[in-house]
Write a structure and sequence with these properties.
D-Maltodextrin-Binding Protein, domain 2, 328 residues, alpha/beta, TRAP_TAXI, signal, 10-stranded mixed beta sheet, globular, 11 helices, TRAP transporter solute receptor, TAXI family, 10 strands
Length: 328
């Protein structure tokens, strides 16, 4: 067992050196790339800009993160090739494949391929302590709730969740940093976050004021699990200084995506940079604790990019079937 693990680790190291040292034919590689992220103040922007910079540095290319409207827009940008890479959650990915992405209704966005697993997106609610809101049931009728950027995972699913739980609200959209400022100024009653934890905007709020991070009750969690494509999740108490115990939540998996027509060796090299050294990814964002090869099987929606599938099958003991690989 130890020998197998050592050999697998050695394979990953050698693969990384080959890509970094230029021992791969790069004639069809782009010289620059962009990664579709989301709004500033959210996890997508911090995480996506971080791995974009890491890949650019390691592979000697020009690349970086781009502010977008989040998962739905990223599916559209990557499908059309306007962005080489992006990040999405499984719900918006499924809707985009089915032609129900509100950005382009009727268009099946099947040119966006899975590249690597990122992390789970918990759904959580934050209010100012001064509001007296300590539970979902406490949210007053007609409350102004910020759901993040229009078309984001949060904006797509959290309003439906709130309606399912019987909350009456006025919907507000905007970047996470902007919504955090509105909450602090009393212009919002609640922010409904769907983002990898810790959410930068929540961490910033904790420093500036007293907040309540509101968990779902067992009954609320069960109702959401029954109705939406999410999984059970607990936000660890160590995530925020405000939390004194783990907070009951639900989550949806995130995957990075690549335009399906990008060169196989290029995408394989990008995956190698991100997946071969988790410590570097953790230095970018704590949510990257889940950005590990073993989570390749969390994608049951998107076709895999051939370069990504090759990396996981050869280096991570994955068994991605040919009928789940684009062009296979």
């Amino acid at each position: 067992m130890k020998l197998t693990t050592l050999l697998a680790a050695t394979t990953v190291v050698f693969a990384g050196q080959a890509f970094a040292d230029g021992h791969v034919d790069r004639t069809d590689w782009p010289t620059s790339f962009t990664v579709g992220t989301a709004s500033q103040g959210g996890t997508y922007f911090a995480y996506g800009s971080g791995w974009a910079n890491l890949v650019a540095e390691e592979l000697g290319l020009t690349g970086g993160g781009e502010v977008t409207g989040g998962p739905m827009q990223n599916m559209a940008l990557v499908h059309t090739g306007e962005a080489a890479f992006g990040m999405t959650t499984m719900g918006p990915a499924a809707e985009s494949l089915n032609g129900t992405n509100p950005i382009a209704p009727g268009l099946a966005m099947d040119k966006a391929c899975a590249m690597f697993p990122m992390y789970q997106t918990p759904f959580s609610v934050t209010a100012l302590t001064s509001s007296g809101i300590t539970s979902v049931a406490d949210i007053p009728a007609g409350a102004k709730i910020g759901f993040g950027p229009a078309g984001s995972t949060s904006d797509t699913y959290f309003p439906r969740m709130m309606e399912t739980l019987g909350v009456d609200f006025e919907r507000r959209n905007g970047g996470w940093t902007d919504l955090g400022g509105q909450l602090q100024d009393g212009l919002l009653d609640v922010i409904a976050f769907a983002a990898g934890v810790p959410v930068p905007a929540v961490s910033q709020l904790e420093v500036q004021t007293d907040v309540n991070i509101i968990e779902f009750t067992e009954a609320e969690q069960a109702k959401i699990l029954e109705t939406f494509p999410v999984s059970q999740f607990d936000i660890a108490a160590s995530t925020y200084t405000t939390l004194e115990a783990d907070a009951r939540s639900v989550s949806m998996w995130n995957f990075s995506i690549a335009n399906c027509d990008l060169p196989e060796s290029f995408v394989e090299a990008v995956v190698d940079v991100v997946m071969s050294d988790n410590e570097r990814m953790l230095g970018i964002h704590k949510a990257a604790r889940s950005t590990v090869p073993a989570n390749w099987d969390k994608n049951g929606v998107l076709m895999w990019h051939p370069g990504a599938a090759k990396w996981f099958n050869e280096n991570a003991g994955a068994s991605i079937a040919a009928d789940m690989i684009y062009g296979g």
